[in-house]
Structure formats: C-alpha cells, structure tokens
Amino acid sequence: MKPAIRSLVQCAAVGVFAVLISNAAIAQQQQKCFPSKFGPKDEIGNANYLTPEKTLQGVKTITKGKTYQLGFETNKDTPAFPPRTFSVIIVQPGQSGGNSLGLTKTTYNDDIINGWVGIGSQLDGLGHIGVDGTYYNCNEG
C-alpha cells in the first residue's frame, strides 16, 4: 500500500475509533443510574465485603500493637467544602448585664456550636452526592 493511502486509512481508522469512544461515553452519561451489584436496597457499596471472617483475616496481619488516633478536634480551622462552616459562640445564659444566677450568684460560660456535620473527620457516605438528583444505587432525591 502506498504511504499516502496508508496514512489516509490510518486517519480514517482513528476517526472511526474516536466516534465509537465518543458514542460510548455519551451513552454512559445518558444512563440514569448504575444499580448496585449488591441489590436494590444496598446502601453501603463495597463495605458489604467487610465480614466477620475478613475482620479475623485482617487481625492476623497485625505485627505491632501500635494505635492511631482516628478523630481530631473540629473547630473554625477545620477544612470544609463551601458553603460549610463551623463556629463556636460563647454565651452566658441568663446573665446579661453582669447578673448572676440564684442565691449562690453562680456565673458560667457555655458554648453554642453552629456548624455542618459534613466537615472534618466525617467522610460523606454514598448517598451524599449524586448526579441530577439521582444518588447511589439509583435513589432519587
């Protein structure tokens, strides 16, 4: 085959391949949802694979007794996706104007937390993000 014809055939093949890939991507985007392989009532996805047997199997891999802190303090500096925020307001309930409470003249400070639970150490579950109102395992709304 002549080089010019071979080049033309190769370009045509690449073009056809690109169209096929593009059509497959469009078809996948148009699919409304992707049902869970664990059934219509599934809410935990691959966590279904976490069984007591798997836990025992995992324990056998432990070679050191080291522990790790899994939680951390949540405060105004905790990373969060907007519009999520976190604030602490310090108040003195019933003590406005320098008043104290009761015969003992008790005074105290208290805290009000105003924040979103989806910040910090919480990892959003499968039902927290969707596409066009459809969430994990084809759940609407």
Short description:
With 141 residues, this protein is an alpha+beta fold.
Largest sheet: 2 strands, antiparallel
Number of strands: 4
The averaged pLDDT comes out at: 79
Shape: flat
Total number of helices: 2
Protein traits:
two-stranded antiparallel ribbon; 2 helices; two-stranded antiparallel sheet; 141 residues
Please characterize this protein's 3D structure:
This protein has two domains: 1-31; 37-140, no CATH class. It is built from two helices and four strands; from the N terminus they run H-H-E-E-E-E. By secondary structure, it is of the alpha+beta class. The strands form two sheets. It has a two-stranded antiparallel ribbon. It has a two-stranded antiparallel sheet with strand order 3-4. The chain is flat. Helices cover 26% and strands 11% of the residues. The protein has helices at residues 3-30, 52-59; strands at residues 86-91, 110-115, 134-135, 139-140. The longest helix is centred in the N-terminal third of the chain and has 28 residues, at 3-30.
List the SSEs and their pairings.
Blueprint: H1 3-30, H2 52-59, E1 86-91, E2 110-115, E3 134-135, E4 139-140
Antiparallel strand pairs: 1-2, 3-4
